[in-house]
Structures are given as structure tokens and as C-alpha cells.
Write a sequence for this structure.
């Protein structure tokens, strides 16, 4: 079975500062990896995904993530955050295309003006 | 193209009651998955429906049941509600086939059980 650990439950950061949200996963098989964002009172929106190929993945809103197989990590980064990035971020894995998503507990990013 | 929609937006029930939540899948999608997101937690997989049949289930008791209709919309039914059923219920639709197909999420239904 797959599992996901998001190492920080809350991350406060000042506007225009860089941020990294950490995610580690556990799986005995190859997986696909995802980051979702959830704004208050909304559903989940896909930020980016790693399926194969280049380990550096670029997503929407200036976010990127790097897949590190040896460390089983998929950390999310943004070089300069905005107030509008304040939201809950979820890391998730699936074993194959039609299997259910397994989510971490989420990291609340709070951007401070 | 219409995205995934869910109804109602909010719902308040009391312990022991039954509830039905509804999800309309995105146009062209034939698979619907339901997730429960408790406060402060990540979403947890309840079950998936494909071509009107349950196609995979998470660790949820039988009082959580579902349906999928010929137009691929879906219902989640929860009987004998418990306080711990209070959560945001999300549905996601996708098309099966190929190595990967993105799941598109609806805005969710927030259920409060008193």
C-alpha cells in the first residue's frame, strides 16, 4: 500500500519569500505523484504531477516540484509567494492510472504581508 | 464544458439520520470517485463507480453506499449517521483508459452531523 507524509502541518512565510512544502511517500511499486491546492471552501485543484521523465516538474501559478526516487520525496517549491497562495496544499500518490488517490494530511501555507 | 458539480453545498443532519449527496461528472467522463475529508485531514477514498458498478472501495463501512446512473452522475448515501461522519465530501470524475487520466474534483458538500 502507498502512504504519504507531509512533514509540516503549517508553514508561515512572508510575501515574496521562497517556500518549500515537503512530501515523502512510501510505496513498494512505482507511483505517480501529485500536488493539489485547496482554497477555503473549495474543492481540490491540480497544481502539478509527475508521471515519468524529467524529475523537475513545473505546474501552475509558478510552482514546481522535484521527484527524488532515492529519497522518496516530492517537495513543492515556489521562489516568491503571493498573498493569494494562502491555501491548503496536499501531496498525493497513485499506483497506476485508475487507482484511487492517496493523500497526505495537508500543509497549510499562510503568506504574511 | 461543464465541470464537476455537487449538491447540496451544505447539509446539517442529526445522528441516526440518512443523507444523500449528489455529483454530476464532467462531460465525457465515465468514472466517479468519492472522498471524505475530515477537518484538518487529507481526503480519504470511499469508493469509485465505473459504468454503474462499484469498482473499488476504501476502508468505509457498508452504511456508506453509492449509485451511478446511465448519464454517469452519482450519489453517495450514508445511513445511520454518526458524529464522525461530519466532513467535506468530494467527488471526482475521470475517464478510464490509458496509463493516467486526471481526476477533476467538484467543490464538495459539507456535511455536519449534530
Amino acid at each position: 500500500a502507498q502512504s504519504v507524509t507531509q512533514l509540516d502541518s503549517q508553514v508561515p512565510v512572508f510575501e515574496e519569500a521562497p517556500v518549500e512544502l515537503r512530501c515523502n511517500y512510501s510505496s513498494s511499486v512505482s507511483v505517480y505523484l501529485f500536488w493539489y491546492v485547496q482554497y477555503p471552501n473549495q474543492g481540490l485543484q491540480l497544481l502539478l504531477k509527475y508521471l515519468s521523465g524529467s524529475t523537475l516538474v513545473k505546474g501552475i501559478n509558478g510552482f514546481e516540484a522535484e521527484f527524488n526516487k532515492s529519497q522518496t520525496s516530492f517537495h513543492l517549491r515556489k521562489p516568491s509567494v503571493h498573498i493569494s497562495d494562502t491555501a491548503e496544499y496536499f501531496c498525493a500518490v497513485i499506483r497506476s492510472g485508475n487507482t484511487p488517490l492517496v493523500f497526505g494530511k495537508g500543509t497549510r501555507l499562510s503568506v504574511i504581508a | 464544458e461543464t465541470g464537476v458539480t455537487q449538491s447540496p453545498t451544505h447539509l446539517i443532519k442529526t445522528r441516526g439520520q440518512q443523507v444523500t449527496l449528489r455529483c454530476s461528472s464532467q462531460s465525457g467522463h465515465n468514472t466517479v470517485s468519492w472522498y471524505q475529508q475530515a477537518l484538518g485531514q487529507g481526503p480519504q477514498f470511499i469508493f469509485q463507480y465505473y459504468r454503474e458498478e462499484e469498482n473499488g472501495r476504501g476502508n468505509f463501512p457498508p452504511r456508506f453506499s453509492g449509485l451511478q446512473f446511465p448519464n454517469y452522475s452519482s450519489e453517495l448515501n450514508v445511513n445511520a449517521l454518526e458524529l464522525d461522519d461530519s466532513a467535506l465530501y468530494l467527488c471526482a470524475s475521470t475517464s478510464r483508459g490509458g496509463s493516467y487520466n486526471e481526476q477533476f474534483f467538484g467543490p464538495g458538500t459539507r456535511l455536519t452531523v449534530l
